[in-house]
Design goal:
By secondary structure, this protein is an alpha+beta fold. It folds into two domains: about 170 residues, Jelly Rolls (Sandwich), CATH 2.60.120; about 100 residues, Homeodomain-like (Arc Repressor Mutant, subunit A, Orthogonal Bundle). The protein contains eleven helices and nine strands. The strands form two sheets. Strands 1-2-9-4-7 form a five-stranded antiparallel sheet. Strands 3-8-5-6 form a four-stranded antiparallel sheet, with no helix packed on it. α5 packs across α7 and α5 runs parallel beside α8. The longest helix is centred in the middle third of the chain and has 23 residues. The radius of gyration is 22 Å and the shape is elongated. The N and C termini lie far apart (about 45 Å). The N terminus is likely disordered.
Length: about 290
């Protein structure tokens, strides 16, 4: 979520409102009032460190670390105060969703699982992942927020895009909470990186970009990943791409250039060089056999 200049109301429809708050030049402290509508679910992603949140309706006071989030149900319209101290930036994204929209989406009358999900949402069971610890954002959540903030189209295309991304966010949240009994209090860095690479190796990504997306130091990524999996992140990424390339190369109807792009290589020369280094022959030679 770095290098985004958009601030204020990003999107509004009958059912959804999205607000980005970013106070980039605080003098002594940053402060913001966040309004939660009547019968609404509020997804709040805290994107800067040491954010204080005080809920006016119940007097609850939280202090969030960077990249934590909560999913909160508000029965009545209420105001929450958010602030930072010591000249720290105040940055968060609020997605407010009407109750009826969620009700129609989940359809709790369809089966027991759907009813339990909605009940957990209403009872605010998704605020904490482990005991009193707010959940941490995943890599996928960061990517989705970047896509929401940077989307430029308007009208029906924007509405469909936003709704699709919110559904994906909810799925990720439900999955994260379903796994809370089998994972540790905070996800390990190596497993986060591995999951990201497994799902995105076909894209033109660089190892340096992964750390920026999840806010983890590059040296920590390289050291802990290699300690866990006995291979560097770069070599693991290359290994996945080469396995996919080898499977695709037997299909002579697919151009070598297309395979290169599908495997995350921007330039076919780089793909050819990597393929030859891995298998000892060029893609063309292996194909023509």
């Amino acid at each position: 979520m770095k290098n985004q200049s958009k601030n204020g109301l990003l999107f509004r429809s009958e059912d959804i409102k999205i607000i980005m708050q970013e106070d980039s030049c605080p003098e002594t402290y940053s402060r913001s009032n966040m309004i939660e509508g009547k019968s609404s679910f509020n997804l709040i992603f805290l994107l800067s460190p040491n954010i204080n949140l005080e809920a006016q309706d119940c007097g609850t006071h939280f202090i969030f670390k960077k990249n934590q989030y909560i999913l909160h149900y508000s029965r009545q319209e209420s105001t929450a105060k958010l602030w930072t101290e010591n000249q720290e930036v105040l940055k968060y994204l609020q997605i407010q969703i009407n109750y009826q929209y969620i009700f129609n989406l989940i359809n709790p009358e369809s089966n027991r699982e759907s009813a339990e999900i909605l009940e957990n949402m209403i009872e605010n069971n998704y605020i904490f992942l482990h005991k009193e610890t707010p959940p941490n954002m995943t890599v996928e959540m960061h990517i989705i927020l970047r896509e929401i903030v940077s989307y430029s189209k308007r009208g029906v295309m924007q509405k469909l895009f936003i709704e699709a991304k919110i559904i994906k966010l909810l799925i990720l949240i439900f999955e994260q909470f379903n796994e809370k009994n089998t994972i540790e209090t905070s996800p390990k860095t190596p497993s986060i990186i591995k999951k990201f690479v497994d799902e995105n190796f076909h894209k033109n990504i660089k190892v340096e970009e992964i750390g920026k997306l999840i806010g983890i130091n590059q040296n920590k990524i390289r050291k802990e990943f290699k300690a866990q999996y006995h291979i560097t992140v770069t070599d693991y990424l290359s290994e996945l791409r080469m396995l996919k390339a080898k499977k695709m190369i037997i299909d002579k109807e697919i151009m070598i250039k297309e395979i290169a792009i599908e495997c995350g290589y921007e330039y076919v020369q780089n793909f050819t060089r990597a393929f030859k280094k891995k298998y000892g022959v060029s893609p063309e030679t292996l194909r023509n056999g």
